Amino acid sequence: MSQVRRQLARPRPSWGWQDDAACRGEDLVLFFGPDGERQPERDVRERKAKAICGGCPVRNECLDYALSRPEKYGTWGGLNEDERASERRRRMRRAASAGISAA
């Protein structure tokens, strides 16, 4: 008999927050960028995407989703890839220090 590998079960995401997202209906290229994009164009595009995220009522839910998966590409919750990596590390350090101080 062959064995079936089981993946670690992640909780299924709730997508309801997307219905209220400020980016709903916007062009995805604004948030993910085209292939071969140069840095000056990327900076302009990301500023536009982040401006939309700035007024979004579900920004925190979006960012939490992207950090929990992790989404490797695009602007999520107002943060680009590098900013999300920094936020992920910051949250991990905070959780680790909370665990140490709680002991």
UniProtKB/TrEMBL annotation:
GO terms for molecular function: 4 iron, 4 sulfur cluster binding; dinitrosyl-iron complex binding; DNA binding; metal ion binding; protein-disulfide reductase [NAD(P)H] activity. GO terms for cellular component: cytoplasm. InterPro entries: 4FE4S_WBL (IPR034768), Whib (IPR003482). Its main location: cytoplasm. It comes from the Bacteria. Binds 1 [4Fe-4S] cluster per subunit. Following nitrosylation of the [4Fe-4S] cluster binds 1 [4Fe-8(NO)] cluster per subunit. Residues 76-103 are annotated as: Disordered. It is found in: Cytoplasm. [4Fe-4S] cluster binds at residues 23, 53, 56, 62. Its cofactor is [4Fe-4S] cluster. Residues 22-86 form the 4Fe-4S Wbl-type domain. Keywords: 4Fe-4S, Cytoplasm, Disulfide bond, DNA-binding, Iron, Iron-sulfur, Metal-binding, Transcription, Transcription regulation. Upon Fe-S cluster removal intramolecular disulfide bonds are formed. The Fe-S cluster can be nitrosylated by nitric oxide (NO). One of its GO terms (biological process) is cell redox homeostasis. PANTHER family: TRANSCRIPTIONAL REGULATOR WHID-RELATED. Belongs to the WhiB family. Acts as a transcriptional regulator. Probably redox-responsive. The apo- but not holo-form probably binds DNA. This is Transcriptional regulator WhiB. It comes from Nonomuraea endophytica. The gene is whiB.
